[in-house]
Amino acid sequence: MATRQYATFEVEGALFGIGVEHVQEVLSFSEYTTVPLAPATIGGLFNLRGQVIAAVDLRVRLGLPRHAMDGPVMNVILRGDEEPVSLLVDRIGEVIELDADQFEPPPDTLAGPARELVLGTFKVGDRLMLALDVDAAVDTNAPTAA
Amino acid sequence: MEDFGEIVQEFLVESHENLDQLDSDLVTLERDPQSRELLSSIFRTIHTIKGTSGFLAFGRLETLAHAGESLLSRLRDGVQPVTQETISTLLAMLDGVRALLATIEETGAEGDVPVEEIIARVNRQIAAAKPAAAKPAAAKPSAGKASRGKAVKTSRKAVKTTAPAETAPAEASAAAPHDAAEPDARRPIGELLVEGGGAVDTDVNWALQKQNAGDERPLGSILLDEGKTNTGAVNEALAAQGRRAVADSSIRVDVDLLDALMNLVGELVLVRNQLVRAADEADDPVIVRTTQRLNLITSELQEGIMKTRMQPIEQLWMKLPRVVRDLSNACGKQVKVRMVGAETELDRSLLEAVKDPLTHLVRNAVDHGIEDLSQRAAAGKPAEGVLTLRAYHESGHVTVEVTDDGSGINVEKVRAKAVERGVVGADEAARMEPREVMMQVFQPGFSTADQVTNVSGRGVGMDVVKTNIERIGGAIDVESTLGEGTTWRLTIPLTLAIIQALTIESGGERYVVPQVAVHELVYIDGAQTRIEYVSGAPVYRLRGKLLPLVRLDTALGRPTSSGDEGVYIVVLQGDGRRFGVVVDRVLNTEEVVVKALTARFKELGVYAGATILGDGKVALILDVASLARRSRLSPASERAVEAEEPATPVGGAVDRLLITTVGARRVAIPLDTVTRLEEFAADKLEWVGNREVVQYRGRILPLVRLSALLGVGMAEQGEAVSAVVYTQAGRSVALVVDTIVDIVESSADERGELDDDGLIGSTVVAQRVTELLDVRRAILAADPHFYTESDSALVEA
Question: Which residue intervals define the domain CheW-like in the entry (chain A) (predicted)?
């Protein structure tokens, strides 16, 4: 059976997952530079070993209040098409291996901005993991519900 | 097969270089049809291309080059004269070769690029000159085949030897002299040896065969090793080959490798900046010394790496005579291209970025700038127009000028056009300075041409030129004298990767402004220097002229972080206008490594990039042109400003400034009032009351430490202190600085003149913001009676 590894993380208590092949690294960082006039989904810029990385606040993408950015925030750094981009999340979870046949389309009850970002769901123990659409999640030019 | 691909790659690179040279050579030949050297050189290059393409089995390319070679051989042998038509045909042949090479590069094969039409055209040229022309043309191929093997070998040498010539300052029409030196440079060593009597030709042929059989030693070495010649003869022959030594001492390096090195050096500069900061705090002499050395080495390394990426601008210019020729022929004009400073070097990535804007300016100058023959005759000008390309280095930048001696741009016409297009109101337009009016030509869709031609205005307008130049951190400017001509001036940074920048703070965040745009800094204390409001718009009275202001916090859509007191104005020049940006604090100037900003922020337009500061935090680089547009006043306040504006005298006097350091700041002191520069031993300094003094020439000299006066930290007390001594009417005072750096010349209108009431302006000297000392105030701090005493003394006496 085809299995796939997912890196998981939490935002506002909900469990999300991204295929590990998209993930470059995960790290906590606290020094961000705000970008005035930028879309609200941009949490800030930071220096990753000499590279300037834009951090997209997943909370804002999901229509939630933004991260305070006054202390350490967890970054899931994704290999972008042209440059890495970071997703700001609440908490990092484990890397889990899931069978492709456990995949289910997003439930009809899932509404709001999250609906656009979720490809489908997996059952992980007694929880539901939402598989995130990477491209949609980091699309900072999309209109936000927030 | 791998090897074969490499050969093709090398062939492509060399041929591309050769083609550019050929373009320029052919245009030169048209002006100087008698130049046999030039003809021979062109012939040889085509011959090489033909030979190599045959060797690599590019049949169509070989046929095309062969046709060109046939025509060239007739020109060379004087069978047929050089005419405008033959040159056009040969240029068309080159274009065909170029198209074929492009296809080969893309697909690895020749594809179906149509060459038959060009070949037919070449043959028509041959036939037109002499109907029975078929014979000499047909006789050529065998000779071509015979020398094919050699052609492959010499092609590399031929390309390399042109490189030093390119760096020579050259006018296009003067290209012939350096070509004259080339026949020797391109001649095989064996031939030279035989000619000089150093070897016999049978031995040379034998050695050549060895080489062909796979012996990798140079020909000279083979002959030497076998005792067929002597060292002296080989050296002589090598010397005769002239530039060979240069060719052998240079190598081709992959641009990606250079880019990677450049990035690494960028990182190193960052680490250096961080370490310098840490060492300042560490207070450990060993670390400080080591850091200083690292600092020096880093700077040298950075310079060295940057040099490897530098290329003479001639690389770009070489293509332009051809552009001018084709265009002037199409417009029925005569235009000569002059080049000054072709050896001026700039970073290759910038060279690429400047290519299109420059080409556009040149096309525009030929099409709209230079008049047609009848107009020139009527104006009493020579029939042939002159287009001058000029490049030079100026204070860390490269300036490239495109000048024509045409009819010039009519400022009033531009003014009228701007009003007609509704860009500015009639009142406003009438008040605009000529310089500002001229900037209107960079507005999208602007044209003063009475008739639109199909030559310029093909997609790119002056606005695009301007955008492209600004994108690389450059600026464009135009100057024109009606009836005499127009000069377009591009100011381009030397390199894209590392810039001098001023770091400022607004709303608790740091931002970076490219130093090139910074003119001066003004501190607003709210009393002597104040922000004023005209129709609600903030302005500052800078030497009597009202300067429109932008509050950085407001411009960035952030809450107002400070009032009108205790803030700084950074006076900037951008988008053709001068304006001030109000910031909370001015921090420092340093070299920063420019990082491209993610595409997400491109449309914001406010940022030109990002950088990483000494402490590792990311800072945004502000886009000066975009801020300038925000500083545009409303028409109402513009009028109000105008009404208040007194006439401003234009100063142009050149002053000499003494540059010193005080703490981390650079302070300039006008030199004309300075009496002497002195060093005093630190243990000679004494205190009298609360005043520091030193015995000097039998008198007591009061000292004032500028560090105390300017409120900056005092540098480590050394064994001696540097002082600037003023003497007037028998009284002397000394101003103590940390170090004396330099004496520079600065024109008075480039900087703030100091008001007597104590305004401290600043200027940019050698890329660094330098504060101008209010000498009077400093002297009064040392000796309150310095100026008055002499007068009162007279009264009392």
Answer: 3-143
